């Protein structure tokens, strides 16, 4: 694969500005024999199909709700596609607009913004091309983050270096700048003083059964907690505490599982933010923590002189409101 990886932001106010940047990107890919994806809603799809004409037949249109289903899983799937396509001498080209994820709960939006930054590390050596249109109608914070997570800005058919672009690791550290809110006073708590994973899993299962967490997600949680606790036992310092609670209010109810210890992580640990790569490609993160991110809705990590905290969140299904007191 001779092309270098590119990741561009396309800021736009009007539809014409969007088309001026997106159409050359899609057409160039079609003419080069790339695998070309356009992640957009039906209105944008109709607009692009009409403007592209016969070229639209070479573009795969993807429903954004499916594509933007989970930050880590989308990153993993897209990277796997890019590697596979590059292996066959072609290029993956993706046009993806963040309209869907930009309206989701704040913690999820933050993780999508972090993914936008980590893409610049994970996709090195793939030769992929990614363009992300950011409408000025998006929340101001989302637009500002887009300018910090893309090395290049598109103006019409040309791209220029983005002066606001931040180093991905510095941007990720900024995402974790705020301390985590403390657990609620009624959180369940268990001190872990020996590597007895049977009782740990039994404890987590018993608590999770009191919530509407689906069985499939419970199995994911058990694997994730086992990985995090094992890591704390091997590399952390006592006391190692496990806490569990639910956050049922608002539009993002969740089961939360937190593991804390008195140890701190070495600089450059990676926090499992970058998918492991095949031998000979760009360096990835630790597989264990990356797997944890794949398994959970949100993973939050804080570490420093006071110790380390890994907080796992799994989304809970909404419980229908009671009717007539039933």
From TrEMBL:
Alphabetized GO MF terms: protein serine/threonine kinase activity
- Give residue ranges for domain Histidine kinase/HSP90-like ATPase: 200-313
| Entry-linked InterPro entries | Anti-sigma-factor_SerPK, HATPase_C_sf, HATPase_dom, MEDS_domain, RsbA-like_anti_sig
Highest rank taxon of the organism: Bacteria
Q: Which CDD domains did the record assign?
A: HATPase_RsbW-like (cd16936)
The MEDS domain sits at: 6-151
Keywords linked to the UniProt accession = Kinase, Serine/threonine-protein kinase, Transferase
* PANTHER family assigned to the protein according to its UniProt record, in alphabetical order: ANTI-SIGMA-F FACTOR RSBW (PTHR35526:SF3), ANTI-SIGMA-F FACTOR RSBW-RELATED (PTHR35526)
Annotated protein name in UniProt: Sensor histidine kinase
Q: Which organism is it from?
A: Actinomadura montaniterrae
